[in-house]
Design brief:
The protein is α/β, with parallel strands linked by helices and about 240 residues long. The protein is about 40% helix and about 20% strand. The strands form three sheets. A five-stranded mixed beta sheet has the order 5-4-3-6-9, sandwiched between helices. It has a three-stranded mixed beta sheet with strand order 7-10-8. The protein is globular and about 45 Å long. About 35% of the residues are buried.
Amino acid sequence: MSEISCYVERDLQGMGVSSKVTISVVIPALEVGEGLRPTLDSIKGCVDDIVVSDGRSSDHTVAYAEQSGATVVVGERGRGQQLRRGAEIATGDWLLFLHADTILQDGWVDEARQHIAENEGKAAVFRFALNDLSRWARMIEKGVALRCRLLALPYGDQGLLIHRTLYDSIGGYKAIPLFEDVDIIRRLGRRRLVILNSKAETSSVRYQKGGFLRRPLKNLMLLLFFYLGVSPQKLVRLYK
């Protein structure tokens, strides 16, 4: 992807003074190594700051992230606490949380820039897509779109673009091992959430291994337990 400026210029109080709004990307990672490359390539040149929050990988993930120019923070594994740690050291006015196996598709830059210019008080997510040509993948994409439309409940593999002030005001990501994405979306609420048209394409490996039908059903069961008050600590054992 060619380098495109993601800088957003805004007049201050009509005085003709421009201020550059900055964007930080936070990526939780665990033993992905050079698998980070496609994700990093989709955002390089478009943001001011990339933070890879590693869960103490035993491979060369940290070394690769540092060689790619990212700032790396290392700590206990668990996506919730990794996202939280990454946000703490990110420097941008806006935070873009992105999974390590998710690639933002062409067109996301302009749409994200427009959202930033117009919706400081709202967060945004991207449309869900899988890098798989099967009809099962298309069915899952349609199911996710329906869930987002009816329940305003995107998952973390759709990314999350949010202003630092809004992120802090709702308490940020909680250091929980599962459903950290559902938890923060619930605190945001439907009125403060925008679903962009641009796609976030995620690896289908987990669906190929866990089953295109079995995996969504398992996730739905766990989500139901979560809403019924079962702790994420207990649910993560069922998830594994």
